[in-house]
Design goal:
- The protein has helices at 15-20, 62-68, 75-82, 86-94, 105-114, 120-134, 143-147, 151-154, 162-175, 180-184, 188-195, 203-212, 224-233, 246-259, 261-268, and strands at 3-8, 27-30, 33-38, 41-48, 51-56.
- The chain has 15 helices and five strands.
- 49% of the residues lie in helices and 11% in strands.
- Strands 1-5-4-3-2 form a five-stranded antiparallel beta sheet.
- The protein is of the alpha+beta class and 270 residues long.
- A hairpin with a 2-residue loop joins β3 (33-38) and β4 (41-48).
- The structure holds a DNA duplex (13 and 12 nucleotides).
Length: 270
DNA sequence: CTCCAGGGGTTCC
DNA sequence: GGAACCCATGGA
């Protein structure tokens, strides 16, 4: 029996911009709605009036979704700060409805390990296969479920050399060497170093996990495109107005750059 | 055929 | 510390 939940006070959140800006690989558009898999539950989301309507079996409660969509953040204030930079302001104006989600920890960790030197359709496919093959009822598998496997078991994913990285991450998570609760108690820099003990997790993947799962908005995923754009747009680093919100600024920047790849390839000298 | 995709490990200097 | 090169896979 399907449940329904209306999230109010969603401000200027745009599902299209939020799901399409490259931070999640688990939502697909169906008409004017989006269908995603979150915590093993298939969810349909659509914007309605002044809120977001969620539908699905066994929906999580409003508190969970409030956290998932970062509705506890004051994005009007964040935009006001970041708009002090003309260039960041341009990126925000292009997609003001982006909100940085807080996604499930283990799933985010494996997803961004899989994302390395990879493209979005293939990342989506591997994550989907991982869930169908090894999760319970299509849910994203637990660390314990993956830790019990070996590389031969993962060969069906066609994930290449990342299979070994997936296993190491799962084993460290299952053993308790890497725990979300532990990371939450550390500084962003300490948490980054801890995550990088996992084979296949470098600064980029670590910061994506910190930003997209733990809500560490001061982390800063060093994407290759961002590095190129930064060198030209912000030769001295991000402006002071982005202090504490480097990750959010980066996500606006990334979406803008990816959507203007043709223009930027010339501007950035790719 | 080559090139590339939201990187990271290893091996050099 | 940084630069070069390697890594499996699939689509363009």
């Amino acid at each position: 029996m399907a449940q329904s939940l209306l999230l109010k006070n969603t401000g200027g959140l745009s599902l299209k911009e939020t799901f399409g800006c490259g931070q999640t690989f688990r939502w697909r558009q169906e008409g004017n709605a989006f269908v995603g898999v979150v915590n093993g539950q298939t969810v349909r989301a659509r914007q309605s009036g002044d809120g977001i309507r969620l539908e699905g079996d066994r929906l999580a409660d409003a508190d969970f979704w409030c956290r998932y969509f970062a509705l506890d953040m004051d994005y009007a204030a964040i935009h006001q700060k970041l708009n002090k930079s003309v260039r960041l302001g341009r990126c925000i104006a292009f997609a003001p409805g982006i909100r940085v989600l807080r996604q499930p920890f283990f799933e985010t960790l494996l997803t961004f390990i899989i994302s390395q030197n990879n493209n979005i359709p293939r990342i989506t496919g591997i994550v989907s296969q991982l869930s169908e093959q090894f999760g319970t009822d299509g849910a994203f598998p637990t660390a314990e479920q993956i830790a019990a496997l070996n590389e031969a078991d993962l060969a069906c994913l066609r994930a290449g050399w990342r299979a070994g990285y997936i296993l190491d991450a799962a084993r460290k998570a299952a053993s308790g060497e890497i725990r979300e609760e532990t990371l939450s108690g550390l500084s962003t820099d300490e948490a980054r170093q801890t995550l990088m003990r996992i084979r296949g997790v470098g600064p980029k993947v670590a910061d994506c996990v910190l930003l997209f799962s733990l809500g560490r908005w001061d982390s800063f995923p060093q994407d290759v495109w961002i590095r190129r754009a930064m060198a030209q747009w912000f030769p001295k680093g991000l402006p002071k107005c982005a202090r504490g919100f480097e990750g959010i600024a980066q996500q606006y920047l990334f979406h803008y750059i990816r959507s203007h790849a043709g223009d930027l390839s010339r501007a950035v000298g790719k």
